[in-house]
Amino acid sequence: MNSIGQVRSRPRWTTWAPLGAPAHSSLLGRAFVAHQLRLGAPAELSGHWQHASGARSACEQLHGSLAGGGQLARQRAWDRGEHDWRDSTTLELSAAELAQALADGAPIRAEIRRLRANGISEVDGRRLAEVFPNLTNLTLGGSLGHLANAGDLNQLHSLRELFIAGLFGMTKADCLLPKRAPDLEYLDLHSVPREYATAMRTRWRPQVAHGTSVDISKARGPEWVRKNLDNPLRDWDGREHITNARFKKAVAQFKKTRSEVLAVLAPQPDASSLARLADLGREYALAFNRLDGRSPFIETEEREELFAALQSVVTEHEQDLGRSLSAERTALLAGVDEARSW
Description:
Layout: H1 26-39, H2 43-51, H3 58-62, H4 71-79, E1 90-94, H5 95-101, E2 114-124, H6 125-131, E3 137-148, E4 161-168, E5 186-190, H7 194-204, E6 213-217, H8 222-228, H9 244-264, H10 271-292, H11 300-321, H12 326-339
Parallel strand pairs: 1-2, 2-3, 3-4, 4-5, 5-6
Helix pairs in contact: 1-2, 9-10, 9-11, 10-12, 11-12
């Protein structure tokens, strides 16, 4: 609302979801759904992200950038089934592509207004502001990634939307200042350092009365980061429909299964080890069947994360052994699939 209590008008389609998001960055997809529901996005797009987070979709192709004078035409194009619209001022990058775009000697991309990158392990906010000086929309997603020099995002004076999830390294000194980003309409921060989240909330909460939407959740302390470095289910912590008790039990079960699987994996497979891995897969599935219980919480997203977590155990040991563990992976996952009810 503005100072006289009227709702400030904004474009409906301006925040993006992660492209091809892996399970560990699913919090971006969920936050995106919540954001689009607040803005009144068409149900088919919000529903897609609720039930197929992580898949490359028509929603991704549309870029979430239906703003400005072309909004009506683009909405009509969507209604006609034309879902492949592209905008030359919009850029979607993988982590590797972003690193290349920010490398020394890379050209300045002054024409880019909307940038999103996912799966980031490390990014320099100073370099980002130098290469993309005219951004209005910025979405950055990582999985315990590191955002250096976040304070230099204050150089993006045209910024209207900022979405950061799963990135760390920021402090209160890196706070984006309202006077440096006077046109900011949407601020979404999820799973970021507590100190940074607190400072941003303090700075931007007064701007809500002037029309800025502020959504800050899952502020993380240093201890949380240390404890969850090797926890592929860490995004369950604080997820709306997952209680803290269930989160802790899920992590404990994963750690138990991980330890048992690693004890079975050997330099060379044999019939007994493959049979044991299948048993462990079934035990894993049954344990989560019980945890799901009479009030189920394991939806499509959580199911994908449970499979991905288990596969990460095999992949990790595969690298240690220096050989393929495809037979072991198949046996383990087949056991899960045989017994799961989620």
